[in-house]
Amino acid sequence: MTGVQVEVVMTRFPVTVRPDTELRRAAETIAAGDVGTVMVVDVDGRFVGTLDARAVLRALLPDAAEAQRAGSVAAASAVFLTGAATRASRPVDPLVDRDPITLRPGAPVAEAAVVMADRGLRRLPVVADGRLLGTVSEADICRAVLAGEAAGVADTPTARAVPTVPAAPSVPTSAAALRARAAAALAAARA
């Protein structure tokens, strides 16, 4: 993984919406794309920010006082459904994080892994000259790590004699192990 850049592993056509997209449409896009964060671009394709699925969900929910006034769970459910229809027509613009952490395409994959692990992020936008080029997700980084391990194993004399892939337990599963591995990879990439 040493020296592998974000642009090599990123998703090149990420799920996007525009700032004027209605909450309803954003929710549909999030569900169809099966993502927790969508990228927001303007009509000219310039990167605006990110939109978190949790922010969309919160915007569709009634406030606590409104739900309590309903009096029962069934009535609160009706308040949610009727109110959600009204709230769903609002634009996502006020919910957009306009200052998210971004990566440049030449950033090392290890840097992306460290940032994501430290900040608890699952996806980061890759931006150059104000344009969204793609995104890097946890899955993209895991694929890069596994591909790097497979390449490293294939280069050893033992691996050439007996072509095997390391067992799954060699892949770190805890957040602490992933952070340690990413930090080591980042240090190696900088060396």
Account of the protein in words:
The protein is of the alpha+beta class and 191 residues long. 49% of the residues lie in helices and 14% in strands. It has helices at residues 6-9, 23-33, 53-60, 64-70, 73-87, 109-119, 138-154, 157-161, 175-190, and strands at residues 16-17, 37-41, 47-52, 123-128, 131-137. It has a three-stranded mixed sheet with strand order 1-2-3. A two-stranded antiparallel ribbon has the order 4-5. Helix 2 (23-33) packs across helix 3 (53-60), helix 4 (64-70) packs across helix 5 and helix 6 runs antiparallel to helix 9. The protein is elongated, with a radius of gyration of 21 Å. The model is unreliable at 153-175 (pLDDT under 50).
Keywords summarizing the entry:
191 residues, alpha+beta, three-stranded mixed beta sheet, two-stranded antiparallel ribbon, 9 helices, 49% helix
Give a nutshell description of this structure.
With 191 residues, the protein is an alpha+beta fold. It is built from 9 helices and 5 strands, in the order αβαββααααββααα.
Instruction: Please tell me how large the radius of gyration is.
Output: 21 Å
Total E-strand runs: 5
Note the quaternary state here: single chain
Order of helices and strands: HEHEEHHHHEEHHH
Question: Helix/strand/pairing class, anyone?
Answer: alpha+beta
What percent of residues are in strands?
A: 5-15%
Proportion of residues in helical segments: 40-55%
Q: What is the tally of helical segments? A: 9
| Main beta-sheet strand count, sense and barrel state | 3 strands, mixed
Mean of pLDDT:
80
* Terminal residue distance: 13 Å
Rough shape? elongated
The low-pLDDT segments are 153-175
| Strand neighbour order, sheet with most strands | 1-2-3
